[in-house]
Amino acid sequence: MAALETSPPPAPPRRQKRGREKVIITCAVTGSIHTPTMSPHLPVTPDQIAEQAVAAAEAGAAILHLHARDPETGRPSPDPDVFMRFLPRIKQQTDAVVNITTGGGQGMTVEDRMQAALTAKPEMCSLNMGSMNFALHPLADRYSDWQHAWEKPFLEGSKDFIFRNTFGDIERILKDLGEGCGTRFEFECYDVGHLYTLAHFLDKGLVRTPLFCQFIFGILGGIGADPDNLTHMKSVADRLFGGDYRFSVLGGGRHQMGLAAMGAVMGGNVRVGLEDSLTMGPGRLAVSNAEQVSHVRGILESLGLQVASPAEARTMLDLKGADLVAF
To answer: What integer is the mean pLDDT of 83-112?
Structure first.
């Protein structure tokens, strides 16, 4: 009896694998947390901010997150004129994406915090996703001699400071900067609830994908710098946003490099800089922002990861381009 002829079963479809994206390095150059007494390497003047920002970009930072300071005292400043003393220089000397704070610093109103961004109309701004206790006062106990009279009261005053970011504030920034200026946002999430706030604005149609979420760990008043918390934040964001977001990891102080490495392995991007940590290890101050960028770049490359260029970061985050800013 002849055997029945049968066709071989069809080969199972091959699953299309999504390639690993390159890693965006953000450098937060000076911030509004640390004070001049804490490190001689903290950039304060427009010249210092410009020089360190340019060097950080040359070292591999695709995004430069920028605050301004009073050139004489080093106190955080919202003054657009101070910003304009370094923004054009950075644009002329690098292709990096400029990201201007809307968080500002302690004691600034929301109007103060928006001034520079509304003037400069940058490609990106930071946007904090909730009001919170933002406590810096333990830092005041580490120093006895201060360069400037404002520093110690500034730090001690944070014991009673609430960092205001109401739903009304957030909506105003989204409309005035997002709709009004074509600016995209680094959504700064200091706790899990901030992710749900971002999801609320996504549901309302006030933000658009792809979202760029900055997971922030280690600020007293926010979520702690524990590896389990990073895993949890990513799990919640995955559930809320699916494939419509990218995340970056910011670990405060000594947690900076370890959490950055962990976040990168999990598929994220990284943020370093003297705003977030003044050190390069126990007892050793970082001598520049570029040193931190170079170090984290070395970590990423040792893990087999590639670093994104500014042009690649613009594509990944759907930015408007440097030709459409106002500086």
So the answer is: 97
Other beta carbons less than 10 A from residue 182's beta carbon: 15
* This prediction's pTM: 0.93
The CA distance from 27 to 186, in Å, is: 13
DSSP 135: B
Contact predicate 158/137, CB 8 Å? yes
SS3 140: helix
Number of helices (H), then strands (E), belonging to the chain: the values are: 12, 14
As given in the structure block, the two tokens for residue 204 are 């309302």
Nearest Cα residue to 57 out of 34, 107, 15, 91: 91
Residue 233: partners with Cβ closer than 8 Å, 6 or more residues away: 189, 192, 195, 215, 223, 247
For the chain, first and last CA: distance in Å? 86
Largest CA distance in the chain: 103
- Residue 277 Rama label (left phi>0; alpha psi -120 to 50; beta): beta
Alpha helices per DSSP H over the chain: 46-59, 80-83, 87-93, 110-120, 151-156, 167-173, 180-181, 192-203, 227-241, 256-265, 289-302, 310-317
Rounded distance between C-alpha atoms, residue 238 and residue 287, angstroms: 37
How far is it, in rounded angstroms, from Cα 53 to Cα 306? 21
Residue 20: which pLDDT band, with cuts at 50, 70 and 90?
confident
Is the Cβ–Cβ distance between 196 and 202 less than 8 Å?
no
